[in-house]
Amino acid sequence: MSDLTINTHGDAGFGDYVALLKPRVMSLAVFTALVGLIVAPGSVHPVEAFASVLFIALGAGAAGALNMWWDSDIDALMKRTRNRPIPSGRVAPGEALQLGLWLSGLSVVMLMLSANIVAAGLLAFTIFFYVVVYSMLLKRRTPSNIVIGGAAGALPPVVGWSVAAGAAAPEPMLMFAIVFLWTPPHFWALALFVKTDYDLAGVPMLTVTHGRAETRSRIFVYAAVLAPVALVLGFTSVGGPAYIATSLIMNALFLRGAWKVRNRSEDEAAADGHAAEKSLFRLSLIYLFLHFGALLADKALRAAGVA
What we know:
It is a single chain. The protein is an all-alpha fold. The protein folds into two domains: 15-166, Tetracycline Repressor, domain 2, CATH 1.10.357; 169-307. It is 74% helix and 0% strand. The chain has helices at 14-20, 23-39, 46-70, 72-75, 93-114, 117-138, 145-154, 156-165, 170-193, 198-201, 206-209, 212-232, 241-262, 266-271, 275-303.
């Protein structure tokens, strides 16, 4: 953290503390963890499943609060984030730190008690990776922050799987790989059409450090690697016809969109208001949801004896 002074008059409401938990990021973690839990072999009592997903959500929220505490200095410099609870002065940095630490400990201990030590250990590692490895060590030092840091967002389905199965397997590793490979093109597509002031805050972004043309090329490279990895999951024990059909369609669309983005100049993009970049970003928003949703569909088909 820098020496930037942040107002701490502390007139926070309940919504400000919820905002500290980054609910949008939390929702993705919760959904992928839930899918991992449901499609894993074995059965989990509904109460245990609900409790486990709740504690995974608390762990994700704890990581968000600690990230906001650490990044409060640069958040105050950027238009996109200056109204967050800490830089706006509604929540004191120390309050966010305490909330994040308490929720981290609570979520890990309670997941261990409600599920097993493997799932709890993975949740603890996820929080550590997001806060220490990504936020503290990578974010302000390298344009690979999103690439490496994406591992934190890719771990929840593995945590969910571990709640039910207690051990790692190829299927959750492939789920991890899909989220991990999806993260960079998702964020880089956004970076191409949304002007940010990360450079003013001293945060290296690929569009700034390597140029927008290189960013466009890397988006396509990641999309090309992502497609076969995503499709392979369909031929494992958790896949099936719904997933394979979904993956074929979505990856064809994602590759086509990435190819269009790759081959456009900045003048062409500016002329049509970055239409291709915005289209790819919107597609990326539903990409993961449909893939993981298709896993649930195939689980239901198998339960009904159809697949």
